[in-house]
Amino acid sequence: MSRDAERPVPLTSDARPEQTFPRLTDEQAARVLVSGHVRKVAAGEVLVDEGATDAPFFIVTAGLVEIAQPDSEGGDDVIVAVLGPGEFTGEVNMLSGRPSLVRAQAREDGAVIELAREQLVSLVQNDAELSEIFMRAFLLRRVALIARGLGDVLLVGSDRSAGTLRVKEFLTRNAHPHTYINVDDDESVEELLQRFHVKEVDIPFLLHRGEVVLRNPSNERITSCLGLNEGIEQTRVRDLVIVGAGPAGLAAAVYGASEGLDVLVLEAHAPGGQAGSSSRIENYLGFPTGISGQELTGRAYAQAQKFGAEVLVANAAAGLTCERLPYIVETDGGTRVPARSVIIATGAVYRRLDLPHVAQFEGAGVYYSATALEAQVCGPDDVAVVGGGNSAGQAAVFLARTAHHVAVIARCEALADSMSSYLVQRIADTPNITVHLQTEVVALEGDGHLERVTWRNARTSGTETHPIRRLFLMTGAVPASKWLHGCVAIDQHGFIKTGPELTDDDLRAARWPLRRPPHLLETTVPGVFAVGDVRAANVKRVASAVGEGSIAVAFVHQVLQEEAEPR
């Protein structure tokens, strides 16, 4: 059978096989060979095993190499691709050194060009043509693995479980392929539960490679099990540590790493931040048809890794020691990360409603993001969105595609006061969206899961109770700055003051040690910057956050130069 005849059916409905599995020309392969070496392989030889970290990169020059996912039950492997001369191995894990999700094995005697992962990363950074080919293929392959659920994880849970939604969101936001079984719909799951001695109270449970069972695991346990932070040295002094991997933090990582800085990013959950939870962003420059927040930040994440930035996920910052250099960022896991400069990009989180029982319904009817994941859970139910800003408008329009009815609840007198006009018009043109102005939610009810929502109109004082089981909260934002413990100056709302926002009193109180004033975006601690939604006077736009992240890096270079100069 020919290699083309053995190629799998397209992995997704819009797959581009010629870009997912491209063939390099002889000239392109020769350029790669300069960085690597030719190696002969024998039939049956395993080039990369599933779970291998820092796996080498291979270009087939003779013979065939099979890419497969081993079956944990001992059955037939799932063939992902069969590569012939000119084709190459790898996907986005090549950039990060995370464990391989597949096995690469020679089907027959042949030869390959082999590069170590570090050699590939250097090649991607310095050869524009090959970078485009490799990066596009790596990203499309990861998308294909996700679409087919070809990961090393089986998640068993319930759509009524807040823990299940958390784990699904963590895996999805970290772009880790997985298969999901809903115990509410799948009758055969009982056998699986008995086999691994799992009780319903243990749900969600995660099965890794058919062996390791994690019962209702924390994000930190999942990270450790899957090796998501594998191979990252956490105690080396970095030129720049960025706290937060939203648009501002990722932009800083891309610009910092691409300009030669040693960059480490600490992220409390998964890359993307608040923007990553947006169903669609339509006013970001260069994307006239819009782009989902997860797709935009996912590309930025891959771009940062391409230039050598390292990202630690499920590592929240817990403190900053800023009295002397190197500064120390302490994580909630106890790790102390030293840094010559720091960019704080921890963003902000939506406020909780000041109502009883909100916490018990979070993930069980109350949500803070509206992505395809939440929409799938909601199905055709009636839903309510609380908020009058762009995030609320985007969520309402997105959810209206699948929900029977969407109620928008806002305290403002007109949506146009705080929402972009295109969203206001789109809401007005959507027949299954009803807007309730000068209104606020006053009660939530339910037994384990949200069942009823009551809201009150401030103008009429009238209340209404509706059988709504899905409530999306997008009401204002609270800056994620408490972890700084007074290390930098903040305003009365908790936002970090920088540059022109800093008063003489602020600088005196902080004992500003330099003759120069703080740079734009610099805090009261030299070399510590704040960008994005956590910063006072920020403009709440993704483009603004990206701009601030890139600008801050320019000042980081100046600070590092100051440190290097003799005093």
Q: What do you see in this structure?
A:
By secondary structure, this protein is of the alpha/beta class. It is globular and about 80 Å long. It folds into 4 domains: 3-146, Jelly Rolls, CATH 2.60.120; 153-226, 3-Layer(aba) Sandwich (Glutaredoxin), CATH 3.40.30.10; 240-349 and 478-564, FAD/NAD(P)-binding domain (3-Layer(bba) Sandwich), CATH 3.50.50; 358-475, FAD/NAD(P)-binding domain. Strand 8, helix 7 (162-173) and strand 9 form a beta-alpha-beta unit. It starts with a helix and ends with a helix. Residues 1-14 have low confidence and may be disordered. The strands form 8 sheets. It has a 5-stranded parallel sheet with strand order 14-13-12-18-29, covered by helices on one side. Strands 20-27-21-22-23 form a 5-stranded parallel sheet, covered by helices on one side. The protein contains 17 helices and 29 strands. Helix 10 runs parallel beside helix 11 and helix 14 (390-399) packs parallel to helix 15 (421-428).
